[in-house]
Amino acid sequence: MKLSIIISTNNSETNWNALRLANFAIKQGDEVKIFLIGRGVEYESGDSDKFNIQEQVKEFLSSSKAQILACGTCLKLREQKATKTCPINTLKDLYLLIQESDKILTF
Question: Taking the model in full, what pTM does it have?
Answer without folding.
Answer: 0.95
